[in-house]
Automatic annotation (TrEMBL):
Annotated family: Belongs to the ABC transporter superfamily.
Keyword Cell membrane: yes
Topology with respect to the bilayer: Peripheral membrane protein
Protein name per Swiss-Prot or TrEMBL: Peptide ABC transporter ATP-binding protein
Originating species: Microbacterium mangrovi
Length: 251
């Protein structure tokens, strides 16, 4: 494979992905590719399929049809080792999922040591540097219940990026936060974008999507209705359903 071919392989790509729960089609033939260093933001009403799409990409949910490729590898092949796939992806959900009995630095380094085999001292040094950079250095020895919601969510993001994953999936990471804490978490995502992190995220924060996304994707009822630059989607949506959704959100 040439250098040019390698550079053009999407970090993650969904081809014709379908997912059904019972009689309900949650994803109905999704085609979506995310390029290296691109930030793609999924928008749409609750129940549109945003979270389910992210969960299929981390193999938490198995697709019923279609394929998902991570760095060119078909990760929906039944022979694939799901744990090895997940080790290549960082994931942060709306609920922080921190272990209450572990300190911040132990929460952050657990997967790095257990899953990736990074030596304890190296993992802790790397974690402390990241925590320092993000204004959490003094909290390394604290337990999660001593932190604000915004701080806990930032710790969860540090845990996800410590091993420098190929792809970062962020699922409504501000929805469980008080409004005054949303800004500090979004600042961190801005910082990650500046570092060239490849991000696929679902959010209800339209102003943030407009500011940080390279591409905005609108989902409705499990269908990818429209995608484009923030300027195009928010300024001149082509599909009536997109325009209707944005008008409803803004009001």
């Amino acid at each position: 494979m040439t250098v040019l071919e390698t550079a053009t392989i999407p970090v993650v790509e969904a081809r014709g992905v379908r997912k059904r729960f019972g009689d309900h089609d949650v994803l109905r033939g999704i085609d979506l590719a995310v390029a290296p260093h691109e930030v793609v933001v999924l928008i749409g009403a609750s129940g549109s399929g945003k979270s389910t799409l992210l969960r299929t990409m981390n193999l938490i949910e198995q697709v019923d049809d279609g394929q998902i490729f991570l760095g060119g590898d078909d990760i929906t092949d039944p022979r694939v080792d799901a744990d090895k796939v997940r080790a290549r992806i960082g994931v942060v959900f709306q609920h922080f999922n921190l272990f209450p009995h572990l300190s911040v630095i132990d929460n952050v380094t657990l997967a790095a040591r257990r899953v990736h085999g990074i030596p304890k001292d190296e993992a802790r040094a790397r974690a402390q540097k990241l925590l320092d950079t993000l204004g959490l250095g003094a909290k390394a020895a604290e337990y999660p219940d001593r932190l604000s919601g915004g701080q806990q969510q930032r710790v969860a993001i540090v845990r996800a990026i410590l091993t420098e994953p190929e792809l970062l999936l962020l699922d409504e990471i501000t929805s469980a936060l008080d409004p005054q804490l949303v800004g500090e978490v979004l600042d961190l995502v801005r910082d990650l974008k500046g570092r060239g992190t490849t991000i696929l995220m679902a959010t209800h924060e339209m102003s943030f999507a407009r500011e940080v996304a390279d591409r905005v994707v609108f989902l409705k009822d499990g269908v990818l209705v429209e995608q484009g630059t923030p300027e195009q989607i928010f300024g001149a949506p082509q599909h009536p359903a997109t325009a209707e959704f944005l008008a409803r959100v803004h009001h």
